[in-house]
Design a protein that fits this description.
With 650 residues, the protein is of the alpha+beta class. The strands form 8 sheets. A 6-stranded parallel sheet has the order 3-2-1-12-13-7, with helices on both faces. A 5-stranded antiparallel sheet has the order 21-20-19-22-25. The protein has a 4-stranded antiparallel sheet with strand order 5-4-6-8. α1 links the parallel β1 and β2. Helix content is 39%, strand content 19%. It has 21 helices and 27 strands. It binds 5'-O-[(L-methionyl)-sulphamoyl]adenosine.
């Protein structure tokens, strides 16, 4: 019996027909995030990835390069291993299907299933898609092409061995029914169920028209069908038939992670093979969505691929991993764009997380000579902050357990935002002015350090170098190599007296315009060196100057609000009547969640008076009032003086 503190997670083994792209990196980083999370929870984890090296496709590509298949794949496999090193993937093994340890298991299993009568010889006649390495019937084709990838298929007719897959259909349906978690997400499970219900045919499991594969043990004219061969990697890598202890330690797998393109192989073919072999089924088969590019799914043959190595050298490992983990909502597809990646780095990492850390560090240095003080004076707002930390821990744990990666990251970001807001609410720079509020200031610093500690722990599976880098500025972890997840669920573990020192910005802002011009640049001084009164100070961008004439084109006027009401059926809009000297105007403004009409009536504001009028919910808005804002607050700019409305602001 497998013990509950052992955890086995796999990625698909990738085809080494070419170098991998960020789609493959997505699965591998996501699985790594789970593996690290489980290790932080104290589990013994076996994380497996590898390469699927046999089959017609690889043989063909190698031939096109004038190489023997093994010679060709060796080169690609070495690139793949380097890629995983670059991305700090913590796989415990890397299985290659060309290895003897794997081939032996494939032959043994083939023989076993044959001996019990579940494999028989016959003739296959039908269609084959080489890029997908999949058999199709005439009926399954779409307009004569592969229904999965849309490419040409070839008609093949050859002697083949068949696996009695159909025999196991009922048993499989029953298993799916009794184990609702087996195929996830639920929408995909329904697809699989209806596929099985249409009737499962026996599966062709050998080929004779090429030789790059595992020979059928009792008939060397045949090589084992590449999918039958490949799926067995999940057993061969953990010593099935060769290392009983290892095998019993980790089988059944806890999660086979993949994208939806290959779910059918894992949710139908693989379980029926295991049933035939008399082995327990994996606990969960999870299919995530695709990272798409304009023009569809990324693929080498379409030429629309993104190289993960290039991205990490431009933006750093933590940032690229963060982007990938956050990118796909539960089971959904997501659109890749480098600009979006840069936006995420700038907003989530530089502005929110990076700033929280650098401002807190700067304040501890400035107000307490770099020694983290103890917390003494508690106020009601602290309870809210602690509650936010507890919720972040609980939600992050639950979402990661459900493989809802983006929701997990968002749960942590909520804590980061809450902590930034706490700085706003507690106004440490004011507390610092009076000796009697020093103890309260100390508590505020301690609470911020706690939020940082918790956020860093929760983000460690995604951004593995972050806790170490942050620790050089605010020393919150004694043993950076052995971070413990459960410590994110406890408040008060930061040690008073711990040292804070000034350091480099953890997430330098990226100047997208410069990147676009192919000169990747980072603006390093975005994080304020000292604490600043505003939680998210306007980021320092590379300056793009405008002339005074450009500015003069804006007609900014003092305007007096004479009337104001809420826009019916709109939460965010107010309708204002304003006076500019003798002139009356109507302005619709999206500030209803921050101001009541009576807050504005009688006040003078700044109006962009020459903005093209536009209709909002049927009301013509003749200008725009100016306001400062951050993620949480909006502050209208008032003109507090006797200056008459209608005067210019310049
Ligand atoms: N060799 C088979 C798998 C055998 S597993 C026993 C194979 N290889 S593959 O190289 O084509 O990899 C497919 C997998 O790569 C997908 O299931 C997914 O995990 C990952 N991805 C490839 N492109 C992807 C995207 N554009 N988006 C998300 N994941 C992607 O199929």
């Amino acid at each position: 019996m497998k013990q509950e503190n052992r955890f086995y997670i796999t990625t698909p083994i990738y085809y080494p027909s070419d170098n991998l792209h960020i789609g493959h990196a997505y699965t591998t980083v996501a699985a790594d995030c789970v593996a690290r999370f489980k290790r932080m929870q104290g589990m013994e984890v076996f994380y497996l990835t590898g390469t699927d090296e046999h089959g017609q496709k690889i043989e063909k590509v190698a031939r096109e390069h004038g190489k023997q298949p093994i010679e060709y794949v060796d080169g690609i496999v070495s690139n793949i291993k380097k890629l995983w090193d670059t991305l700090l993937i913590t796989n415990n093994d890397f299985i290659r299907t060309s290895e003897a340890r794997h081939q032996e298991v494939v032959q043994k299993l083939f023989q076993k299933v044959y001996d019990q009568g579940d494999i028989y010889i016959s003739e296959y006649e039908g269609w084959y898609c080489t890029p997908c390495e999949t058999f199709f019937t005439e009926r399954q084709l779409q307009e004569g092409k592969c229904p999965d990838c849309g490419r040409e298929v070839e008609l093949i007719k050859e002697e083949s061995y068949f696996f009695r897959m159909g025999k196991y259909a009922g048993q499989l349906l029953e298993h799916i029914e009794n184990n609702p978690d087996f195929i996830q997400p639920p929408s995909r499970r329904n697809e699989v169920v209806s596929f099985i219900k249409q009737g499962l045919e026996d599966l062709c499991v050998s080929r004779t028209t090429f030789s790059w594969g595992v020979p059928v043990p009792f008939n060397d004219k045949h090589v084992v069908y590449v999918w039958f061969d490949a799926l067995i990697n999940y057993l061969s890598a953990i010593g099935y038939t060769s290392d009983e202890d290892l095998f019993n330690k980790f089988w059944p797998a806890d999660i086979h992670l993949m994208a939806k393109d290959i779910l059918r192989f894992h949710a139908i073919i693989w379980p029926t093979m295991l049933m035939a072999a008399g082995l327990p089924l994996p606990r969960k088969v999870f299919a995530h969505g695709w990272i798409m590019l304009e023009g569809g799914k990324m693929s080498k043959s379409k030429g629309n691929v993104i190289d993960p190595v290039e991205l990490t050298s431009k933006y750093g490992i933590d940032a690229v991993r963060y982007y990938l983990v956050k990118e796909l909502s539960f089971g959904q597809d997501g659109m890749y764009s480098e600009e979006l990646l840069v936006n995420r780095i700038n907003s989530d990492l530089a502005n929110d997380l990076g700033n929280l850390i650098s401002r807190t560090t700067a304040m501890i240095i400035r107000y307490f000579d770099g020694n983290l003080p103890a917390a003494d004076i508690t106020e009601p707002v602290d309870a809210e902050l602690k509650e936010a930390a507890r919720t972040a821990y609980e939600e992050a744990t639950e979402k990661l357990d459900n493989l809802d990666f983006s929701a997990y990251v968002i749960a942590v970001l909520k804590l980061v935002s809450r902590a930034n807001k706490y700085i706003d609410e507690t106004e440490p720079w004011k507390l610092a002015k009076q000796e009697e509020s020093k103890a309260r200031l100390a508590t505020v610093m301690y609470n911020l350090a706690e939020c940082i500690r918790i956020a860093l722990l929760l983000l460690a599976p995604t951004m593995p170098t972050l806790p170490g880098r942050a620790n050089q500025q605010i020393n919150l972890f004694d043993d950076i190599e052995h971070l413990r997840w459960e410590e994110a669920g406890k408040w008060g573990l930061a040690r008073p007296g711990t040292q804070a020192v000034k350091g480099e910005s953890l997430f330098p802002r990226i100047d997208w315009k410069a990147v676009n011009k192919d000169e990747a640049q980072t603006v390093t001084d975005v994080a304020p060196k000292q604490e600043a009164p505003s939680p998210n100070p306007a980021p320092v961008q590379e300056k793009e100057y405008i002339s005074i004439d450009d500015f003069a084109r804006l007609d900014l006027r003092v305007a007096e609000v004479t009337a104001c009401e809420k826009m019916p059926k709109a939460d965010k809009l107010l309708i204002l009547k304003v006076k500019l000297g003798e002139e009356e105007r109507t302005v619709v403004s999206g500030i209803a969640q921050h101001y009541q009409p009576e807050d504005l009536i009688g006040k003078k504001v700044v109006l962009v008076a020459n903005l093209k009028p536009t209709k909002l919910r049927g009301v013509l808005s003749e200008g725009m009032i100016l306001a400062a804002s951050d993620a949480n607050t909006v502050e209208v700019l008032f003109v507090d003086s006797d200056i008459e409305s209608g005067n210019r602001v310049k």
